Amino acid sequence: MGYTALCANHPCTFIVGANSFSKQGQMSIYCVRYFLHAISKPLLASITSIKSESCKHKTFSDLSTRPLLSYNDGKWKKTPPGDVKAMVWVLTRRKILDLITWNSKKMGTNLNHIGVLTSGGDAPGMNAAIRAVVRACTHYGIKVSGIQEGYQGLIDGNMDEMDARSVAHIINRGGTILQSARCLQFREKKGREKAHDNLKANDIDALIIIGGDGSFTGANLFSQEFDIPVVGIPGTIDNDIYGTDFTLGYDTALNTVVEAIDKIRDTATSHNRLFFIECMGRDAGFIALNAGIAGGATEILIPEDNKTLDDVVNKLEYSRSAKKTSNIVLVAEGDQLGDTFKLAEETQKKLPDHDIRVSVLGHIQRGGNPTCADRVLGSRLGVAAVEQLLHGHSGIMVGLRNDTVTTETLHDAITKKPGINRNLMHVADIVSL
């Protein structure tokens, strides 16, 4: 079936493989409605009429232009052939799934090919973001390539074109299908020059970077040096990126830590023990603070607070006097009191009658199927990143604030730090009695 979309300034024909025909060879209204729903809104806004044509051959010279239906002012009617100035052959999988081309200049840019990569530590929800980027590009008729192993893949030229089907069944998976790697070469100008050469060799016009502040630092520098449009998507379980309420992987990590606390508490209660549990977060206490409240921790130690060993001991002594049968001290890995094992040893010296154990959760916090929240967040930010590039924006990060997708400059996302919720710290002190 051929669709002639007569646009205000850009007549073009979309020829798609569809199987919604009547016995007389005419196109069904359902097929047309699907087409109108699938095309991008900017293109749809520019369409003045649509005419369907039967297409029995796969060459432009043999293409039949016998008119069947046209769409004008909300009405369908038979029309004569129109003046078709541009044609694009699109083969789909029995349905109208892919519209390969559209006039992207109508959104203020001539972007034709976007590259996407994941960099730094993996985080649940990255695959949801990759999926959204790829399918948003397909929706808007732009080529998209997945770059393997982060910036190392840029330097090595390790990239492959993707489509809607290549990201099927990944939204529920942890980690990243594009893999990630630390790349020392990209820190050097020579390495970045090689990465730029590979982008040009593959006709990639812009990049979407999924990662943390280190990844954004490289992206910002690369964009400034070579005038490559770049948009970042915050992906880190630490939730320590300025400009967004939540980062990809944070919600999943929280749930993992809370589940671990619940299981450890079973043993702590059975044996009347005190457990020091160390969780991730780098130099931020978002995971520890929220998971500590949800897990009923007696004490929560985070880098943003200034608690001393005496504060911890006093809290534990009060807890013993209140006849608690178990105690959990949740320690963020970047807390100022230092190594969790050493902290436990010092506490044991001051509280010799306590049976103390230490559990370091480690990389279990990074893995696992992403939660619903991370899947939805990845989907929203992936689509937003593509649309920001299409609108000509660069050097920004897409994020979520007050449940609304927003943007922040990469410079601010890198140099500024999000503040901890002091009210939550107040709540933690009260509910841990």
Written account of the structure:
The chain has 433 residues and is α/β, with parallel strands linked by helices. Helix 3 (126-139) links the parallel strand 7 and strand 8 (143-147). The chain has helices at 29-38, 41-46, 126-139, 150-156, 189-201, 213-226, 250-271, 286-295, 309-321, 340-350, 372-390, 410-415, 422-431, and strands at residues 2-7, 12-15, 47-53, 67-72, 75-77, 87-89, 113-118, 143-147, 159-162, 206-211, 230-234, 274-279, 299-301, 327-332, 356-360, 396-401, 404-409. It contains 13 helices and 17 strands. The strands form three sheets. Strands 9-8-7-10-11-16-17 form a seven-stranded mixed β-sheet, sandwiched between helices. The protein has three domains: 2-104, no CATH class; 108-249 and 370-415, Rossmann fold, CATH 3.40.50.450; 250-367, Phosphofructokinase domain (Rossmann fold), CATH 3.40.50.460. The longest helix is centred in the middle third of the chain and has 22 residues, at 250-271. 36% of the residues lie in helices and 20% in strands.
- Count of helical segments? 13
| Biggest sheet, spatial arrangement of strands | 9-8-7-10-11-16-17
Largest sheet: 7 strands, mixed
Mean pLDDT: 80
CA radius of gyration:
27 Å
Write the layout of secondary structure elements.
Elements: E1 2-7, E2 12-15, H1 29-38, H2 41-46, E3 47-53, E4 67-72, E5 75-77, E6 87-89, E7 113-118, H3 126-139, E8 143-147, H4 150-156, E9 159-162, H5 189-201, E10 206-211, H6 213-226, E11 230-234, H7 250-271, E12 274-279, H8 286-295, E13 299-301, H9 309-321, E14 327-332, H10 340-350, E15 356-360, H11 372-390, E16 396-401, E17 404-409, H12 410-415, H13 422-431
Parallel strand pairs: 2-6, 7-8, 7-10, 10-11, 11-16, 12-14, 12-15, 13-14
Antiparallel strand pairs: 1-2, 1-3, 3-4, 4-5, 8-9, 16-17
